[in-house]
């Protein structure tokens, strides 16, 4: 077990009221089922806020498509990042306080549907998107004035596939011809950029953070009327690698250095994976075994585990580490591995129920349709009470 997973497991087990559910209730949960612990989700969110201390905390809707999760999160956050008609619908019915529309496929239809309010904002990813926005403004006289944000690539290279900086597929490269053209076009149309938005994949070490800080200091100097910087998501690796205090200190000085250039800047973060992943636990049953060792479980249509492999929750399953097994299922991903390097003292028997975590982020939003399996049911626990979806 690497350090990141060890830390995550311990955190999960320490805080989870899920594991305090009586055996009778655990036995009665059918499989496959995903169980969210909303108390744990709230604790997680507050912990991230207390460490990074952003001015605004947004939820990227793409990290989870459960209406109940968003009804809950809308009450505890400042807004939602949305990328499509469906995500706008979900965020609107959850009553998020504000929407940030950020999408590589902006269309007039999306703009009409979003019907952005003054408290909302919209990213421009390209000159083409700036033209779409301007023609929307021109033909819809009565629209409000959402604030305009530029989605920028961070102009450094990185060899790490998780941290793409200027290798990002999306956004405008600062000071490129496209950047200058967008600025000119916006100026001609009396539109001010109030925010810049970056998303660099994973902030996977402090040296990446200091490169980004230098870049943002420069932008803040060049665009004196800037009001907000949205740092995107991708904080998961950091929380696995460094202590809370190290992360707190790093972000404290990161923000202070930018504030020295412009003290009015407000910071937004929108971590999806880190906020949600450990709030969900997957209950599955062993449906077969391979060579009397590895097991196959009844995961269903939603399962996409290539980003974070869920681990067996040992204290729930009462299985201690000893023999290494692999857990397989129809993941709809190469090799069908749900979890590997799982250490058990007793190989689960066919029919036995086991619990896997984390399963709270990018699971139900990236479900797959192979075999036409049903989407897995979900239930929610909040302060010890169980709610069905
Ligand atoms: C713009 C933006 N913000 C936030 C996120 C969430 O990232 P994560 O779930 O890794 O924190 C993403 C993910 O792709 C994104 O593209």
Question: Explain this structure to me?
Answer:
With 389 residues, the chain is of the alpha/beta class. The protein has two domains: 3-36 and 276-388, Lyase, Ornithine Decarboxylase, Chain A, domain 1; 98-271, Alanine racemase (TIM Barrel, Alpha-Beta Barrel). It is built from 13 helices and 18 strands. It has helices spanning 3-15, 23-28, 38-52, 67-76, 85-94, 108-114, 127-139, 177-188, 206-222, 236-241, 244-261, 273-276, 314-317, and strands at 33-37, 56-60, 79-82, 99-101, 121-124, 147-153, 172-173, 193-197, 228-230, 266-269, 280-290, 294-297, 311-312, 323-328, 337-344, 353-357, 377-382, 385-388. The strands form two sheets. Strands 1, 11, 12, 13, 14, 15, 16, 17 and 18 form a nine-stranded mixed β-sheet that branches. The protein has an eight-stranded parallel barrel with strand order 2-3-4-5-6-8-9-10. Strand 17 and strand 18 form a beta hairpin. The chain starts with a helix and ends with a strand. The model is unreliable at 1-10 (pLDDT under 50). Bound molecules: pyridoxal-5'-phosphate. InterPro entries: Ala_racemase/Decarboxylase_C (IPR009006), De-COase2_N (IPR022644), Orn/DAP/Arg_de-COase (IPR000183), PLP-binding_barrel (IPR029066). Keywords: Pyridoxal phosphate. Its cofactor is pyridoxal 5'-phosphate. This is Orn/DAP/Arg decarboxylase 2 N-terminal domain-containing protein. Residues 59-272 form the Orn/DAP/Arg decarboxylase 2 N-terminal domain.
